[in-house]
Amino acid sequence: MKVEVYKSTDQNPNLTNYEETRDNFDWQEVEKHFSWHETGKFNMAYECIDKHVDDGYGDKTALHYKNGDSRSSYTFKDLKTASNKAANVLKDAGVEKGDRVFIFMARSPELYTSLLGALKIGAIVGPLFEAFMEKAVKDRLQNSEAKVIITSPELVGRIPVDDLPDLEKVILVGENVSADYVDFKTEYEKASDEFDIEWLDKEDGLILHYTSGSTGQPKGVLHVQYAMVQHYISGKYVLDLKEDDVYWCTADPGWVTGTSYGIFAPWLNRATNVVVGGRFSPEAWYGAIEDLNVTVWYSAPTAFRMLMGAGDEIVKKYDLSSLRHVLSVGEPLNPEVVKWGMDVYHLRIHDTWWMTETGAHMIVNFPSMDIKGGSMGKPIPGVEAAIIDDSGNELPVNRMGNLALKANWPSMMREIWKNKPKFDSYFIGEWYVSGDSAYQDEDGYFWFQGRVDDVIMTAGERVGPFEIESKLVEHEAVQEAGVIGKPDPVRGEIVKAFISLREGYSPSDELKEDIRVYVKEGLAAHAAPREIEFKDKLPKTRSGKIMRRVLKAWELNIDAGDLSSMDDD
Ligand code: WT7
Protein backbone atom coordinates (compact mmCIF):
# COMPACT_ATOMS: atom_id res chain seq x y z
CA MET A 1 0.00 0.00 0.00
CA LYS A 2 1.21 3.49 -0.82
CA VAL A 3 2.17 5.50 2.26
CA GLU A 4 0.48 8.89 2.50
CA VAL A 5 2.63 11.64 3.95
CA TYR A 6 1.00 14.56 5.75
CA LYS A 7 3.33 17.50 6.01
CA SER A 8 3.67 19.38 9.24
CA THR A 9 1.45 22.42 8.80
CA ASP A 10 2.83 25.82 8.01
CA GLN A 11 0.01 27.28 10.15
CA ASN A 12 2.15 27.24 13.25
CA PRO A 13 5.79 28.12 12.69
CA ASN A 14 6.41 28.11 16.46
CA LEU A 15 6.27 24.34 16.82
CA THR A 16 9.19 22.82 18.66
CA ASN A 17 11.66 21.37 16.19
CA TYR A 18 12.03 17.62 16.66
CA GLU A 19 15.65 16.96 15.66
CA GLU A 20 16.97 20.03 17.42
CA THR A 21 15.14 19.21 20.65
CA ARG A 22 16.18 15.57 20.53
CA ASP A 23 19.83 16.33 19.88
CA ASN A 24 20.08 18.82 22.75
CA PHE A 25 17.80 17.04 25.19
CA ASP A 26 18.67 16.56 28.84
CA TRP A 27 16.19 15.35 31.48
CA GLN A 28 18.00 17.40 34.12
CA GLU A 29 17.18 20.57 32.23
CA VAL A 30 13.49 19.66 32.41
CA GLU A 31 13.75 19.23 36.20
CA LYS A 32 14.45 22.95 36.48
CA HIS A 33 10.82 23.64 35.67
CA PHE A 34 9.73 22.26 39.05
CA SER A 35 9.68 23.91 42.45
CA TRP A 36 11.34 20.82 43.96
CA HIS A 37 14.39 21.57 41.91
CA GLU A 38 15.05 24.23 44.58
CA THR A 39 13.20 22.82 47.59
CA GLY A 40 13.65 19.05 47.23
CA LYS A 41 10.00 18.65 48.26
CA PHE A 42 8.00 16.48 45.91
CA ASN A 43 4.27 16.21 45.61
CA MET A 44 2.43 15.67 42.33
CA ALA A 45 -0.78 17.28 43.63
CA TYR A 46 1.14 20.40 44.61
CA GLU A 47 2.74 20.74 41.18
CA CYS A 48 -0.59 20.10 39.41
CA ILE A 49 -2.76 22.48 41.45
CA ASP A 50 -1.44 24.47 44.43
CA LYS A 51 1.66 25.73 42.64
CA HIS A 52 -0.48 27.53 40.07
CA VAL A 53 -2.39 29.24 42.87
CA ASP A 54 0.93 30.27 44.46
CA ASP A 55 2.07 31.61 41.09
CA GLY A 56 -1.00 33.83 40.73
CA TYR A 57 -3.20 31.66 38.49
CA GLY A 58 -5.77 30.74 41.15
CA ASP A 59 -8.66 32.19 39.17
CA LYS A 60 -7.84 30.37 35.97
CA THR A 61 -10.28 27.57 35.01
CA ALA A 62 -8.66 24.23 35.78
CA LEU A 63 -11.57 21.89 35.05
CA HIS A 64 -14.74 21.83 32.99
CA TYR A 65 -16.95 18.88 33.84
CA LYS A 66 -19.79 18.02 31.47
CA ASN A 67 -22.32 15.22 31.66
CA GLY A 68 -25.31 15.50 29.36
CA ASP A 69 -26.76 18.96 29.90
CA SER A 70 -25.18 19.51 33.28
CA ARG A 71 -21.95 21.43 33.40
CA SER A 72 -19.68 22.77 36.11
CA SER A 73 -16.35 24.57 36.14
CA TYR A 74 -13.60 24.86 38.77
CA THR A 75 -10.65 27.21 39.06
CA PHE A 76 -7.24 26.12 40.34
CA LYS A 77 -8.18 27.78 43.63
CA ASP A 78 -11.40 25.73 43.78
CA LEU A 79 -9.46 22.52 43.20
CA LYS A 80 -6.90 23.44 45.81
CA THR A 81 -9.64 23.88 48.39
CA ALA A 82 -11.60 20.81 47.32
CA SER A 83 -8.54 18.55 47.35
CA ASN A 84 -7.50 19.91 50.75
CA LYS A 85 -10.93 19.02 52.12
CA ALA A 86 -10.82 15.58 50.51
CA ALA A 87 -7.32 15.06 51.96
CA ASN A 88 -8.67 15.85 55.43
CA VAL A 89 -11.53 13.36 54.99
CA LEU A 90 -9.04 10.68 53.96
CA LYS A 91 -6.66 11.51 56.77
CA ASP A 92 -9.49 11.20 59.29
CA ALA A 93 -10.25 7.80 57.78
CA GLY A 94 -6.71 6.75 58.71
CA VAL A 95 -4.87 7.16 55.40
CA GLU A 96 -1.14 7.66 55.74
CA LYS A 97 1.78 8.11 53.39
CA GLY A 98 2.39 5.01 51.25
CA ASP A 99 -1.05 3.45 51.88
CA ARG A 100 -2.93 2.22 48.86
CA VAL A 101 -6.15 4.14 48.34
CA PHE A 102 -8.45 2.93 45.60
CA ILE A 103 -10.88 5.10 43.72
CA PHE A 104 -13.76 3.21 42.14
CA MET A 105 -16.35 5.48 40.63
CA ALA A 106 -17.65 6.96 37.42
CA ARG A 107 -16.02 10.14 36.17
CA SER A 108 -17.20 13.01 38.35
CA PRO A 109 -15.58 16.06 39.96
CA GLU A 110 -15.28 14.05 43.21
CA LEU A 111 -13.18 11.42 41.46
CA TYR A 112 -10.62 14.06 40.56
CA THR A 113 -10.65 15.96 43.85
CA SER A 114 -10.39 12.83 45.99
CA LEU A 115 -7.56 11.52 43.81
CA LEU A 116 -5.69 14.79 44.34
CA GLY A 117 -6.55 14.65 48.05
CA ALA A 118 -5.07 11.15 48.37
CA LEU A 119 -1.90 12.36 46.63
CA LYS A 120 -1.61 15.27 49.05
CA ILE A 121 -1.30 12.73 51.89
CA GLY A 122 1.34 10.82 49.93
CA ALA A 123 -0.91 7.81 49.42
CA ILE A 124 -0.49 5.59 46.37
CA VAL A 125 -3.65 5.84 44.29
CA GLY A 126 -5.21 2.81 42.61
CA PRO A 127 -7.85 3.95 40.13
CA LEU A 128 -10.40 1.33 39.09
CA PHE A 129 -12.56 1.48 35.99
CA GLU A 130 -16.27 1.57 36.86
CA ALA A 131 -17.05 -1.47 34.68
CA PHE A 132 -15.08 -3.81 36.95
CA MET A 133 -17.16 -6.45 38.69
CA GLU A 134 -16.54 -8.26 41.96
CA LYS A 135 -13.72 -10.60 40.98
CA ALA A 136 -11.73 -7.92 39.20
CA VAL A 137 -12.12 -5.58 42.18
CA LYS A 138 -11.19 -8.30 44.66
CA ASP A 139 -8.03 -9.38 42.82
CA ARG A 140 -6.71 -5.82 42.65
CA LEU A 141 -7.51 -4.84 46.24
CA GLN A 142 -6.15 -8.09 47.61
CA ASN A 143 -2.94 -7.95 45.64
CA SER A 144 -2.19 -4.35 46.68
CA GLU A 145 -3.44 -4.72 50.29
CA ALA A 146 -5.56 -1.63 49.85
CA LYS A 147 -6.48 0.20 53.05
CA VAL A 148 -9.26 2.50 51.86
CA ILE A 149 -11.55 2.64 48.86
CA ILE A 150 -13.65 5.57 47.71
CA THR A 151 -16.73 4.55 45.75
CA SER A 152 -20.35 5.31 44.91
CA PRO A 153 -23.66 3.64 45.90
CA GLU A 154 -23.99 2.03 42.43
CA LEU A 155 -20.65 0.25 42.76
CA VAL A 156 -20.21 -0.46 46.46
CA GLY A 157 -21.94 -3.85 46.20
CA ARG A 158 -19.06 -5.12 44.07
CA ILE A 159 -16.52 -4.73 46.87
CA PRO A 160 -16.26 -8.08 48.71
CA VAL A 161 -15.25 -6.57 52.07
CA ASP A 162 -15.25 -9.96 53.83
CA ASP A 163 -12.46 -11.19 51.54
CA LEU A 164 -10.37 -8.07 52.07
CA PRO A 165 -8.77 -8.17 55.53
CA ASP A 166 -6.56 -5.13 54.87
CA LEU A 167 -9.40 -2.89 53.79
CA GLU A 168 -10.20 -0.68 56.78
CA LYS A 169 -12.65 1.84 55.38
CA VAL A 170 -15.09 2.19 52.53
CA ILE A 171 -15.83 5.83 51.76
CA LEU A 172 -19.11 6.37 49.98
CA VAL A 173 -19.86 9.40 47.83
CA GLY A 174 -23.68 9.45 47.93
CA GLU A 175 -26.77 10.44 49.88
CA ASN A 176 -28.13 8.93 53.13
CA VAL A 177 -25.03 6.83 53.68
CA SER A 178 -25.39 3.99 56.21
CA ALA A 179 -23.13 3.73 59.26
CA ASP A 180 -21.14 0.89 57.65
CA TYR A 181 -19.38 3.45 55.51
CA VAL A 182 -17.65 6.80 55.80
CA ASP A 183 -20.08 9.40 54.44
CA PHE A 184 -17.90 11.45 52.10
CA LYS A 185 -20.24 14.36 51.57
CA THR A 186 -21.00 14.93 55.26
CA GLU A 187 -17.33 14.64 56.23
CA TYR A 188 -16.33 16.87 53.35
CA GLU A 189 -18.71 19.64 54.49
CA LYS A 190 -17.18 19.53 57.97
CA ALA A 191 -13.56 19.29 56.81
CA SER A 192 -11.13 22.17 57.02
CA ASP A 193 -10.03 23.67 53.72
CA GLU A 194 -6.46 23.91 54.92
CA PHE A 195 -4.14 20.95 54.56
CA ASP A 196 -0.41 20.51 55.11
CA ILE A 197 0.85 18.67 52.07
CA GLU A 198 3.03 15.64 52.79
CA TRP A 199 6.38 16.26 51.13
CA LEU A 200 7.81 13.22 49.44
CA ASP A 201 10.96 11.93 47.80
CA LYS A 202 11.25 11.63 44.06
CA GLU A 203 11.10 7.84 44.22
CA ASP A 204 8.03 7.66 46.48
CA GLY A 205 4.97 5.93 45.04
CA LEU A 206 2.38 7.84 43.02
CA ILE A 207 -0.02 5.54 41.28
CA LEU A 208 -0.72 1.84 40.84
CA HIS A 209 -2.36 0.80 37.57
CA TYR A 210 -3.34 -2.81 37.09
CA THR A 211 -2.85 -4.13 33.61
CA SER A 212 -3.24 -7.44 31.84
CA GLY A 213 -0.62 -9.81 30.58
CA SER A 214 -1.08 -13.04 28.67
CA THR A 215 -0.46 -15.61 31.35
CA GLY A 216 -1.20 -14.44 34.88
CA GLN A 217 -3.50 -12.36 36.99
CA PRO A 218 -3.42 -8.61 36.37
CA LYS A 219 -0.20 -6.99 37.51
CA GLY A 220 0.14 -3.79 39.50
CA VAL A 221 2.36 -1.34 37.67
CA LEU A 222 3.84 1.18 40.12
CA HIS A 223 4.84 4.69 39.07
CA VAL A 224 6.60 7.23 41.26
CA GLN A 225 6.53 10.99 41.82
CA TYR A 226 9.51 11.62 39.54
CA ALA A 227 7.38 10.52 36.55
CA MET A 228 6.03 14.06 36.55
CA VAL A 229 9.11 15.23 34.67
CA GLN A 230 8.00 13.23 31.66
CA HIS A 231 4.28 13.95 32.07
CA TYR A 232 5.11 17.63 31.99
CA ILE A 233 7.48 17.68 29.04
CA SER A 234 5.46 15.34 26.84
CA GLY A 235 2.39 17.45 27.60
CA LYS A 236 4.31 20.49 26.47
CA TYR A 237 5.91 19.03 23.35
CA VAL A 238 3.61 16.26 22.17
CA LEU A 239 0.20 17.51 23.33
CA ASP A 240 1.60 20.97 22.50
CA LEU A 241 -0.27 22.44 25.49
CA LYS A 242 -0.21 26.21 25.74
CA GLU A 243 -1.47 28.73 28.27
CA ASP A 244 -4.96 29.16 26.77
CA ASP A 245 -5.64 25.62 25.61
CA VAL A 246 -8.82 23.77 26.50
CA TYR A 247 -7.73 20.15 26.48
CA TRP A 248 -9.86 17.02 26.42
CA CYS A 249 -8.50 13.52 26.95
CA THR A 250 -11.38 11.08 26.49
CA ALA A 251 -9.85 8.28 28.59
CA ASP A 252 -11.13 7.26 32.02
CA PRO A 253 -8.61 7.46 34.91
CA GLY A 254 -9.09 3.70 35.39
CA TRP A 255 -6.58 3.43 32.54
CA VAL A 256 -3.15 5.00 32.44
CA THR A 257 -4.03 7.43 29.64
CA GLY A 258 -6.71 8.89 31.90
CA THR A 259 -4.19 9.70 34.63
CA SER A 260 -0.89 10.49 32.86
CA TYR A 261 -2.70 12.51 30.18
CA GLY A 262 -6.14 13.04 31.73
CA ILE A 263 -4.80 14.55 34.98
CA PHE A 264 -1.06 15.02 35.31
CA ALA A 265 0.18 16.30 31.93
CA PRO A 266 -2.55 18.93 31.42
CA TRP A 267 -2.41 20.31 34.96
CA LEU A 268 1.38 20.30 35.16
CA ASN A 269 1.14 22.50 32.06
CA ARG A 270 -1.58 24.67 33.67
CA ALA A 271 -4.06 23.93 30.86
CA THR A 272 -7.83 23.92 31.28
CA ASN A 273 -8.80 20.26 31.49
CA VAL A 274 -12.09 18.86 30.23
CA VAL A 275 -13.83 15.81 31.70
CA VAL A 276 -16.90 14.42 29.99
CA GLY A 277 -19.03 11.97 31.97
CA GLY A 278 -21.47 9.44 30.56
CA ARG A 279 -21.26 7.20 27.56
CA PHE A 280 -19.86 7.73 24.10
CA SER A 281 -22.10 9.08 21.37
CA PRO A 282 -21.06 11.18 18.39
CA GLU A 283 -23.56 13.86 19.46
CA ALA A 284 -22.26 14.01 23.05
CA TRP A 285 -18.65 14.12 21.93
CA TYR A 286 -18.94 16.68 19.15
CA GLY A 287 -21.29 18.64 21.42
CA ALA A 288 -18.60 18.74 24.11
CA ILE A 289 -15.98 20.05 21.68
CA GLU A 290 -18.37 22.74 20.46
CA ASP A 291 -19.71 23.81 23.87
CA LEU A 292 -16.37 23.95 25.64
CA ASN A 293 -14.29 25.16 22.68
CA VAL A 294 -11.87 22.27 22.97
CA THR A 295 -8.56 23.06 21.25
CA VAL A 296 -6.50 19.91 21.91
CA TRP A 297 -8.19 16.51 21.78
CA TYR A 298 -6.62 13.17 22.74
CA SER A 299 -8.62 10.04 21.95
CA ALA A 300 -8.33 6.51 20.58
CA PRO A 301 -8.59 4.71 17.22
CA THR A 302 -11.77 2.91 18.28
CA ALA A 303 -13.48 6.21 18.98
CA PHE A 304 -12.29 7.72 15.70
CA ARG A 305 -13.52 4.64 13.83
CA MET A 306 -16.92 4.91 15.50
CA LEU A 307 -17.10 8.61 14.62
CA MET A 308 -16.10 7.73 11.08
CA GLY A 309 -18.85 5.10 11.02
CA ALA A 310 -21.39 7.70 12.13
CA GLY A 311 -20.89 9.46 8.79
CA ASP A 312 -19.57 12.83 7.69
CA GLU A 313 -22.94 14.60 7.85
CA ILE A 314 -23.02 14.69 11.62
CA VAL A 315 -19.64 16.45 11.73
CA LYS A 316 -21.15 19.34 9.79
CA LYS A 317 -23.84 19.89 12.43
CA TYR A 318 -21.24 20.99 14.97
CA ASP A 319 -18.81 23.85 15.06
CA LEU A 320 -15.49 22.16 15.64
CA SER A 321 -13.41 25.14 14.55
CA SER A 322 -11.83 25.51 18.01
CA LEU A 323 -9.86 22.27 17.47
CA ARG A 324 -6.24 22.75 16.52
CA HIS A 325 -4.44 19.54 17.56
CA VAL A 326 -5.72 15.94 17.61
CA LEU A 327 -3.95 12.86 19.00
CA SER A 328 -4.59 9.14 19.31
CA VAL A 329 -3.37 6.27 21.47
CA GLY A 330 -4.11 2.69 22.42
CA GLU A 331 -3.94 0.60 19.27
CA PRO A 332 -2.82 0.94 15.68
CA LEU A 333 -4.21 4.07 14.04
CA ASN A 334 -5.29 2.98 10.60
CA PRO A 335 -4.05 5.08 7.66
CA GLU A 336 -7.70 5.38 6.46
CA VAL A 337 -8.59 7.05 9.75
CA VAL A 338 -5.76 9.59 9.42
CA LYS A 339 -6.96 10.34 5.90
CA TRP A 340 -10.55 10.71 7.07
CA GLY A 341 -9.40 13.05 9.85
CA MET A 342 -7.78 15.28 7.25
CA ASP A 343 -10.98 15.29 5.21
CA VAL A 344 -13.48 16.04 7.98
CA TYR A 345 -11.51 17.87 10.69
CA HIS A 346 -8.89 19.33 8.32
CA LEU A 347 -6.34 18.30 10.92
CA ARG A 348 -3.77 15.58 11.21
CA ILE A 349 -4.41 12.90 13.82
CA HIS A 350 -1.13 12.35 15.68
CA ASP A 351 -0.55 8.77 16.74
CA THR A 352 1.28 8.13 20.03
CA TRP A 353 2.63 4.79 21.25
CA TRP A 354 3.32 3.90 24.86
CA MET A 355 2.14 1.49 27.55
CA THR A 356 0.93 1.37 31.14
CA GLU A 357 4.43 0.25 32.08
CA THR A 358 6.19 3.15 30.32
CA GLY A 359 3.99 5.68 32.12
CA ALA A 360 4.18 8.27 29.37
CA HIS A 361 4.74 8.75 25.63
CA MET A 362 7.55 6.79 24.02
CA ILE A 363 7.09 6.91 20.25
CA VAL A 364 4.99 9.68 18.75
CA ASN A 365 4.12 11.83 15.80
CA PHE A 366 5.75 14.98 17.15
CA PRO A 367 3.69 18.03 16.10
CA SER A 368 6.46 19.43 13.89
CA MET A 369 7.09 16.08 12.18
CA ASP A 370 5.76 14.90 8.85
CA ILE A 371 3.25 12.12 9.47
CA LYS A 372 3.46 8.89 7.53
CA GLY A 373 -0.07 7.48 7.65
CA GLY A 374 0.00 4.23 9.64
CA SER A 375 3.29 4.90 11.43
CA MET A 376 3.62 5.55 15.15
CA GLY A 377 6.36 8.12 14.50
CA LYS A 378 9.66 8.44 16.33
CA PRO A 379 10.89 8.30 19.95
CA ILE A 380 10.31 11.39 22.05
CA PRO A 381 13.43 13.37 22.94
CA GLY A 382 15.16 11.65 25.87
CA VAL A 383 14.02 8.15 24.90
CA GLU A 384 15.94 5.65 22.81
CA ALA A 385 14.02 2.94 20.96
CA ALA A 386 15.18 0.06 18.80
CA ILE A 387 14.09 -3.17 17.18
CA ILE A 388 15.94 -6.09 18.72
CA ASP A 389 15.99 -9.87 18.35
CA ASP A 390 15.33 -12.25 21.24
CA SER A 391 18.98 -12.06 22.34
CA GLY A 392 19.05 -8.27 22.51
CA ASN A 393 20.86 -7.58 19.24
CA GLU A 394 19.69 -4.52 17.34
CA LEU A 395 18.20 -5.34 13.96
CA PRO A 396 18.77 -3.37 10.76
CA VAL A 397 16.08 -1.12 9.23
CA ASN A 398 12.95 -2.70 7.78
CA ARG A 399 13.39 -5.89 9.79
CA MET A 400 10.59 -6.89 12.10
CA GLY A 401 11.46 -7.69 15.71
CA ASN A 402 10.83 -6.78 19.35
CA LEU A 403 10.09 -3.14 19.95
CA ALA A 404 12.42 -2.22 22.82
CA LEU A 405 13.36 0.87 24.80
CA LYS A 406 16.53 1.66 26.60
CA ALA A 407 15.74 1.89 30.31
CA ASN A 408 15.63 4.40 32.07
CA TRP A 409 13.32 7.33 31.54
CA PRO A 410 11.54 9.25 34.35
CA SER A 411 8.07 7.71 33.99
CA MET A 412 9.32 4.12 33.74
CA MET A 413 7.50 1.77 36.14
CA ARG A 414 9.52 1.03 39.25
CA GLU A 415 8.02 -2.31 40.14
CA ILE A 416 5.31 -4.82 39.48
CA TRP A 417 3.59 -4.83 42.86
CA LYS A 418 5.06 -7.67 44.97
CA ASN A 419 6.29 -9.50 41.88
CA LYS A 420 9.97 -9.04 41.21
CA PRO A 421 10.28 -12.00 38.78
CA LYS A 422 7.56 -10.49 36.62
CA PHE A 423 9.29 -7.13 36.62
CA ASP A 424 12.61 -8.73 35.70
CA SER A 425 11.01 -10.65 32.86
CA TYR A 426 10.53 -7.41 30.90
CA PHE A 427 14.23 -6.95 30.29
CA ILE A 428 16.87 -8.26 27.93
CA GLY A 429 20.10 -6.68 29.12
CA GLU A 430 19.64 -2.93 29.17
CA TRP A 431 16.54 -3.11 26.98
CA TYR A 432 12.96 -2.93 28.20
CA VAL A 433 11.04 -5.24 25.86
CA SER A 434 7.53 -4.02 25.13
CA GLY A 435 5.82 -7.20 23.94
CA ASP A 436 4.99 -5.50 20.65
CA SER A 437 6.60 -6.32 17.35
CA ALA A 438 7.48 -3.54 14.94
CA TYR A 439 10.05 -2.38 12.42
CA GLN A 440 11.82 0.88 11.78
CA ASP A 441 12.05 2.31 8.28
CA GLU A 442 14.99 4.07 6.64
CA ASP A 443 13.72 7.47 7.83
CA GLY A 444 13.59 6.34 11.46
CA TYR A 445 9.81 5.93 11.64
CA PHE A 446 8.43 3.01 13.65
CA TRP A 447 5.66 0.76 12.29
CA PHE A 448 3.57 -1.36 14.64
CA GLN A 449 3.07 -4.99 13.57
CA GLY A 450 1.31 -6.73 16.43
CA ARG A 451 1.62 -8.12 19.93
CA VAL A 452 4.23 -10.81 20.45
CA ASP A 453 2.12 -12.36 23.20
CA ASP A 454 -1.59 -13.19 23.30
CA VAL A 455 -2.75 -9.96 24.92
CA ILE A 456 -5.98 -8.70 23.35
CA MET A 457 -6.53 -5.03 22.52
CA THR A 458 -10.25 -4.43 22.28
CA ALA A 459 -11.57 -0.91 21.81
CA GLY A 460 -8.25 0.39 23.12
CA GLU A 461 -8.39 -1.67 26.29
CA ARG A 462 -5.92 -4.37 27.10
CA VAL A 463 -7.47 -7.60 28.28
CA GLY A 464 -5.55 -10.66 29.30
CA PRO A 465 -6.87 -13.94 27.91
CA PHE A 466 -5.92 -15.76 31.10
CA GLU A 467 -8.16 -13.66 33.33
CA ILE A 468 -11.13 -14.32 31.04
CA GLU A 469 -10.35 -18.03 30.69
CA SER A 470 -10.18 -18.32 34.48
CA LYS A 471 -13.60 -16.75 34.80
CA LEU A 472 -15.07 -18.90 32.02
CA VAL A 473 -14.06 -22.16 33.65
CA GLU A 474 -15.89 -21.11 36.80
CA HIS A 475 -19.13 -21.38 34.82
CA GLU A 476 -20.90 -24.66 35.57
CA ALA A 477 -21.11 -25.71 31.91
CA VAL A 478 -17.52 -24.93 30.91
CA GLN A 479 -14.91 -27.65 30.87
CA GLU A 480 -12.10 -25.71 29.22
CA ALA A 481 -11.74 -22.36 27.54
CA GLY A 482 -9.26 -20.64 25.25
CA VAL A 483 -9.57 -16.95 24.48
CA ILE A 484 -8.16 -14.98 21.55
CA GLY A 485 -8.52 -11.58 19.93
CA LYS A 486 -10.40 -11.74 16.64
CA PRO A 487 -9.76 -8.86 14.21
CA ASP A 488 -12.69 -6.43 14.08
CA PRO A 489 -13.12 -3.37 11.86
CA VAL A 490 -14.33 -1.05 14.64
CA ARG A 491 -12.92 -2.42 17.88
CA GLY A 492 -9.54 -3.48 16.54
CA GLU A 493 -10.09 -6.87 18.11
CA ILE A 494 -13.00 -8.53 19.86
CA VAL A 495 -12.77 -11.18 22.54
CA LYS A 496 -13.56 -14.62 21.14
CA ALA A 497 -13.77 -17.72 23.35
CA PHE A 498 -13.43 -21.33 22.29
CA ILE A 499 -15.13 -23.55 24.83
CA SER A 500 -15.46 -27.26 25.46
CA LEU A 501 -18.44 -28.24 27.59
CA ARG A 502 -18.77 -30.49 30.59
CA GLU A 503 -20.66 -33.77 30.47
CA GLY A 504 -24.37 -33.22 30.36
CA TYR A 505 -24.27 -29.82 28.63
CA SER A 506 -24.93 -29.26 24.97
CA PRO A 507 -24.24 -26.24 22.77
CA SER A 508 -27.04 -23.71 22.34
CA ASP A 509 -27.46 -19.99 21.77
CA GLU A 510 -29.00 -19.62 25.22
CA LEU A 511 -25.94 -21.19 26.79
CA LYS A 512 -23.66 -18.83 24.85
CA GLU A 513 -25.62 -15.87 26.13
CA ASP A 514 -25.59 -17.23 29.66
CA ILE A 515 -21.81 -17.64 29.58
CA ARG A 516 -21.35 -14.17 28.12
CA VAL A 517 -23.46 -12.58 30.85
CA TYR A 518 -21.59 -14.62 33.45
CA VAL A 519 -18.27 -13.01 32.45
CA LYS A 520 -19.82 -9.60 32.02
CA GLU A 521 -21.31 -9.64 35.52
CA GLY A 522 -18.45 -11.46 37.18
CA LEU A 523 -15.44 -9.73 35.64
CA ALA A 524 -16.07 -6.74 33.37
CA ALA A 525 -18.22 -5.86 30.39
CA HIS A 526 -15.28 -5.31 28.06
CA ALA A 527 -13.87 -8.74 28.96
CA ALA A 528 -17.04 -10.65 28.00
CA PRO A 529 -16.57 -12.68 24.80
CA ARG A 530 -18.54 -11.16 21.95
CA GLU A 531 -18.19 -14.47 20.14
CA ILE A 532 -18.26 -17.98 21.53
CA GLU A 533 -17.57 -21.16 19.62
CA PHE A 534 -18.08 -24.61 21.13
CA LYS A 535 -15.52 -27.32 20.37
CA ASP A 536 -15.39 -30.94 21.48
CA LYS A 537 -11.74 -30.55 22.35
CA LEU A 538 -9.27 -27.67 22.55
CA PRO A 539 -5.71 -27.84 21.18
CA LYS A 540 -3.21 -28.28 24.02
CA THR A 541 0.47 -28.77 24.58
CA ARG A 542 1.61 -31.97 26.24
CA SER A 543 1.98 -30.04 29.44
CA GLY A 544 -1.70 -29.16 29.19
CA LYS A 545 -1.47 -25.50 28.15
CA ILE A 546 -4.16 -24.38 25.74
CA MET A 547 -2.54 -23.30 22.49
CA ARG A 548 -4.09 -19.96 21.69
CA ARG A 549 -1.86 -19.74 18.63
CA VAL A 550 -3.72 -22.69 17.13
CA LEU A 551 -7.11 -21.22 18.02
CA LYS A 552 -6.08 -18.03 16.28
CA ALA A 553 -4.96 -19.93 13.20
CA TRP A 554 -8.31 -21.74 13.11
CA GLU A 555 -10.06 -18.42 13.35
CA LEU A 556 -8.03 -16.73 10.63
CA ASN A 557 -7.90 -19.82 8.45
CA ILE A 558 -4.15 -19.82 8.31
CA ASP A 559 -1.41 -22.36 8.91
CA ALA A 560 -0.84 -22.92 12.62
CA GLY A 561 2.91 -23.40 12.17
CA ASP A 562 4.95 -25.79 14.25
CA LEU A 563 2.63 -28.18 16.08
CA SER A 564 5.30 -30.45 17.50
CA SER A 565 4.40 -29.57 21.09
CA MET A 566 0.72 -30.32 20.55
CA ASP A 567 -0.86 -33.21 22.36
CA ASP A 568 -3.05 -34.84 19.75
CA ASP A 569 -4.46 -37.92 21.33
C1 WT7 B 1 -0.34 -1.71 24.38
C2 WT7 B 1 -0.28 -1.07 25.73
C3 WT7 B 1 -0.77 3.63 27.07
C4 WT7 B 1 -1.95 3.92 26.43
C5 WT7 B 1 -3.04 2.96 26.21
C6 WT7 B 1 -2.77 1.49 26.15
C7 WT7 B 1 -0.92 -1.06 22.23
C8 WT7 B 1 -0.76 1.45 22.46
C9 WT7 B 1 -0.50 2.04 20.39
C10 WT7 B 1 -0.30 2.65 19.12
C11 WT7 B 1 -0.30 0.50 18.17
C12 WT7 B 1 -0.58 0.64 20.44
C13 WT7 B 1 0.39 -1.82 22.19
C14 WT7 B 1 0.93 -1.63 23.59
N1 WT7 B 1 -0.76 0.31 21.74
N2 WT7 B 1 -0.62 2.50 21.66
N3 WT7 B 1 -0.21 3.98 19.00
N4 WT7 B 1 -0.22 1.84 18.04
N5 WT7 B 1 -0.49 -0.13 19.33
O1 WT7 B 1 -2.01 1.09 27.23
O2 WT7 B 1 -3.25 -0.90 28.08
O3 WT7 B 1 -0.83 -0.55 28.64
O4 WT7 B 1 -1.53 -1.21 26.34
O5 WT7 B 1 -1.31 -1.02 23.60
O6 WT7 B 1 0.15 -3.17 21.93
O7 WT7 B 1 1.85 -2.62 23.98
P1 WT7 B 1 -1.91 -0.42 27.65
Automatic annotation (TrEMBL):
Q: Which Gene3D superfamilies does UniProt cross-reference here?
A: 3.30.300.30, N-terminal domain of ligase-like
What is the name listed in the Swiss-Prot or TrEMBL entry for this protein? Putative long chain fatty acid-CoA ligase VraA
One GO molecular function term of this record is: acetate-CoA ligase activity
SUPFAM superfamilies the record matches = Acetyl-CoA synthetase-like
Which NCBIfam families does the protein's record reference? PRK04319.1
- The catalytic activity of this protein is classed by the Enzyme Commission as 6.2.1.1
Q: Which InterPro entries match?
A: AMP-bd_C, AMP-bd_C_sf, AMP-binding_CS, AMP-dep_synth/lig_dom, ANL_N_sf
- A Pfam family matched in the record: AMP-binding_C
Which positions make up the signal peptide? none
Annotated keywords: Acetylation, ATP-binding, Ligase, Nucleotide-binding
Q: Which residues form the AMP-dependent synthetase/ligase domain?
A: 55-416
The chain positions of domain AMP-binding enzyme C-terminal read 467-545
Task: Specify the taxonomic lineage.
Answer: Bacteria, Bacillati, Bacillota, Bacilli, Bacillales
- Which PANTHER family does this UniProt record tie to the protein? ACETYL-COENZYME A SYNTHETASE, ACETYL-COENZYME A SYNTHETASE 1
Q: Which PROSITE patterns match?
A: AMP_BINDING
Q: Which organism is it from?
A: Corticicoccus populi
